[in-house]
Automatic annotation (TrEMBL):
Keyword line: Disulfide bond, Repeat, Sushi
Matches recorded under Pfam families: CUB, Sushi
Cited InterPro entries: CUB_dom (IPR000859), Sperma_CUB_dom_sf (IPR035914), Sushi/SCR/CCP_sf (IPR035976), Sushi_SCR_CCP_dom (IPR000436)
UniProt name for this protein: CUB and Sushi multiple domains 3
All residue ranges annotated as the Sushi domain in the record: 108-167
Domain CUB: from-to ranges: 1-105, 169-280
Length: 288
């Protein structure tokens, strides 16, 4: 059944239904619609003859009503685009059965996830059954599921909590260029942080580093950069306060960056970097 409205009658209605029945009706509508079931008449042998209504078309779908006896049931709302009705009668005490009127109704959309802080949403259809995805701006890391689907159900909800994009405390970075934000940026960084970023580009490249924003507590909160993969490498510099907006350059294809904050006064920084080919690594040999 695919009409947006219709009538479902038990076999033989308004006469009595036969014994030993197992009947199934399935209503299939476009995604985004549910079904309102209104009972005009209902009478079955109590317990032994029953009508089971499922919000879905499979045996594992949710049962929203198991109806039996002489009482007229209240209306039911199926919150999926497929609804199944299964009727069973045993070998005795046949009754009049049921007269049901159904009407499709449009389901609500899931909540709009926009604005999505520090990132963007791919997809603009938030209706039932639709999937959207999330990506972060450079320098941020996605926390949570990158794709969400709007679920069927009484209330419209996504199948997972909304993800978020965060500037993390440290990480391993292999892109040729990028941005490193202070933890929690654009909010101020927390106290008691010791964050390490290892930046690695292909051999033969050095790394240019530029502080596009630097506003930390002078002296006590600082960024240290080493020209190599660990703290035993030569130190390029230590930067604090708001005075180090000049560029610096590594001779290695790896740099280690450490950020330290103490117990008072917060701030933030934005550091951009890019790998640059260094011809000194590939000097042609001199032939004699």
């Amino acid at each position: 059944m695919s009409d947006f409205s219709g009538v479902i009658l038990s076999p033989g209605f308004p006469g009595n239904y036969p014994s030993s029945l197992d009947c199934t009706w399935t209503i299939k509508l476009p995604i985004g619609f549910g079904v309102h079931l209104q009972f005009v008449n209902f009478s079955t042998e109590t317990i032994h003859d029953y009508l089971e209504v499922r919000s879905g078309s499979t045996e594992t779908s949710n049962v929203i009503g198991r109806l039996s006896g002489p009482q007229l049931p209240a209306s039911l709302f199926s919150t999926t685009h497929e609804t199944s009705l299964y009727f069973h009668s045993d070998y005795s005490q046949n009754k009049q059965g049921f007269h049901i009127v159904y009407q499709a109704y449009q389901l609500q959309s899931c909540p709009d996830p926009r604005p999505f802080r520090n990132g963007f949403v791919i997809g603009t259809d938030f209706t039932v059954g639709q999937t959207i995805s999330f990506e972060c701006f450079p320098g941020y890391t996605l926390i949570g599921n990158s794709a969400l689907t709007c679920l069927h159900g009484v209330s419209r909800n996504w199948n997972h909590p909304l993800p978020r994009c965060e500037a993390l405390c440290g990480g391993n970075i292999t892109a040729m260029n990028g941005t490193i934000y202070s933890p929690g940026y654009p909010d101020e960084y927390p106290n008691f942080q010791d964050c390490f970023w290892l930046v690695r580009v292909p051999p033969g490249n050095g790394i240019y580093i530029n502080f596009t924003v630097l506003q930390t507590e002078p002296i006590y909160d600082f960024i240290t950069v080493w020209d190599g993969p660990d703290q035993t490498s030569p130190q390029i510099g230590q930067f604090s306060g708001n005075t180090a907006l000049e560029s610096v350059y590594s001779t290695s294809n790896q740099i280690l960056i450490k950020f330290h904050s103490d117990f008072t006064t917060s701030g933030f920084f934005v550091l951009s970097y890019h790998g640059k080919y260094d011809k000194l690594y590939f000097l042609e040999p001199v032939l004699y």
